[in-house]
Amino acid sequence: MMLKSYGLGALLLALPALPFMPPAPAPVPAVPVPVATPAATPEGHTADQIGRFLTRFYGAHGPSDHDRRHHISQVLQDRQLRTAESDVLLCARNEPRDIGVGPVTVAQAAGVGWATVTTHWDSGKTDTFTVYVRLDSKPIRIDDVICAG
């Protein structure tokens, strides 16, 4: 028997002409099946809570001695001991005239929230740095500070 090259093409062209039969609907169970509820969001601080904490922590001129002892990570406490010439929480040597906390971003998957903090100085200049808060810290505390250049 000899195959003709157009035989397969003709067969494929004829397939769409065949009647289409939709699949039969799935049977409905007599007993209701419980619907899976979405997984609970991991417990942790919200952007609003972090924003309020940072605003209180920094105040108008910088954190209090109490906040420095109880609301920063051990890593920051150790860094401050090694960096006596500068305040690691303010990225500066002096007390600013005013401090502003920007909007907080929360990355649930990373377990961290952060905000840009702006310091205003008597000279009229401003500086910014980024403050990081772990979402699972108890009590809430600053985990790291990254100075901007």
Briefly characterize the structure:
The protein has helices at 5-14, 47-58, 65-70, 74-82, and strands spanning 98-107, 112-120, 126-134, 142-147. With 149 residues, the protein is of the alpha+beta class.
Report on this model:
The chain has 149 residues and is an alpha+beta fold. It contains four helices and four strands. It has a four-stranded antiparallel sheet with strand order 1-2-3-4. Strand 1 (98-107) and strand 2 form a beta hairpin. The longest helix has 12 residues, at 47-58. The termini are far apart. The model is unreliable at 1-6, 8-13 and 33-41 (pLDDT under 50).
What is the makeup of the main sheet? 4 strands, antiparallel
Number of helices: 4
What is the N-to-C order of secondary-structure elements (H for helix, E for strand)? HHHHEEEE
Q: Please state the overall shape, judged from the principal axes of the Cα atoms.
A: elongated
What is the percent of helical residues?
10-25%
Strand arrangement across the biggest beta sheet: 1-2-3-4
Total strand segments: 4
End-to-end Cα distance: 82 Å
Radius of gyration: 31 Å
Question: What structural class is derived from the secondary structure elements?
Answer: alpha+beta
Please describe the structure with a list of short key phrases separated by commas or semicolons.
single chain; 149 residues; alpha+beta; four-stranded antiparallel β-sheet; 4 helices; elongated
